[in-house]
TrEMBL record:
The keyword Signal applies. It holds the Pfam family SLT_2. Keywords: Signal. Residues 1-23 form the signal peptide. One of its GO terms (biological process) is peptidoglycan catabolic process. This is Lytic transglycosylase. It comes from Pseudorhizobium pelagicum. Residues 33-237 form the Transglycosylase SLT domain. One of its GO terms (molecular function) is peptidoglycan lytic transglycosylase activity.
Length: 270
């Protein structure tokens, strides 16, 4: 836990240090991306990232058009609840989630004992995000995050994510070749890099926070995220109940929040 707190402090320090420096010029197409990278790298070094980590991280970074298309086209969150559940395979997630709950009962019991988060919402998130780890994404993570940091639409937000990703590379917790979702989400429950730094947990005790290869790390980190967003042990998590605020912290889309609460309740039902 001390390492997690130190890492979170580092990200905050990196971002606060970096922002006053003359920022690299954002853009809305690929034309200026290469120049932006060259401007950004010395800023990252000046902010405390080791030069070797910066060079490793940017070695294969390129402008990611798939990321920009995904960022501009998140239409599924405008569906009704029933439409969303059908599109995302809600009944299948519930059925498989019940089996996964039994398969990983010992791990889930330990997580609930430590964090007060029951299996249902964890299985709902795991199933919704990656089909229980079956598809983690096929986009080059550092390219995705760098593209969105360069893109003018949400440059400040994703610049923070990029500094966090560089911190993870420096720590040895993110491979420069890592692949994930289109916005740079990492691992089996799809954490943005800054959330890996803030809430990532070494659930299996191997000294690293590996949200890709370790189910224990991914699920414990997800529980820790929910606690960090107000989860109260023993309280309900349906809309209007105390712990729904933590689910709202996971995803801003109302229909997504409803789906997690519904799927979780079905999985938790005895």
């Amino acid at each position: 836990m001390k390492n997690i707190l130190r890492a979170a402090t580092l990200v905050a320090a990196l971002v606060s240090t970096a922002m006053p420096v003359a920022a690299a010029q954002c853009g809305n197409d690929s034309a200026g991306f290469a120049n932006w990278v060259q401007d950004f790298k010395p800023q990252a070094v000046a902010s405390g990232i080791h030069p070797q980590a910066v060079e490793q991280a940017f070695a294969n970074v390129s402008y990611n058009r798939d990321t920009i298309r995904a960022d501009r086209g998140q239409r599924s969150f405008k569906l009704s609840f029933d439409q969303f559940m059908e599109k995302r395979g809600g009944p299948t997630i519930i059925a498989r989630g019940k089996k996964m709950k039994n398969t990983h009962a010992q791990l889930l019991t330990a997580i609930e004992r430590r964090y007060g988060v029951p299996a249902g919402p964890l299985m709902a998130i795991w199933g919704m995000e990656t089909g229980f780890g079956s598809f983690l994404g096929d986009q080059h993570t550092l390219s995705s995050v760098a593209t969105l940091a360069y893109d003018c639409r949400r440059s400040d937000y994703f610049t923070e994510q990029l500094y966090a990703a560089l911190t993870l590379v420096q720590r040895g917790d993110l491979s420069p070749a890592a692949r994930g979702a289109a916005h740079g989400e990492i691992g089996q429950t799809q954490f943005l890099p800054a959330n890996v730094v803030r809430y990532g947990v070494d659930g299996d005790g191997d000294g690293h926070v590996d949200l890709v290869g370790s189910r224990a790390d991914a699920l414990a980190s997800t529980a820790n995220f929910l606690v960090g967003h107000g989860w109260q042990p023993g309280a309900g998590y349906q809309p209007g109940e105390p712990n729904h605020v933590a689910i709202q912290g996971w995803n801003a889309a109302t229909v997504y929040q409803q789906a997690i609460a519904h799927i979780g309740a079905e999985i938790d039902a005895r």
